[in-house]
Amino acid sequence: TLPTVLFRLGTPELLPESGPALEQLAAELQARPGLRIEVAGHTDRIGEPQKNQVLSGQRAEAVKAYLVQAGIAAERIRTTGYGDARPLHPSPDARNRRVEVQQLP
Question: Would you say 85 and 9 are in contact if contact means Cβ atoms under 8 Å apart?
Answer without folding.
Answer: no
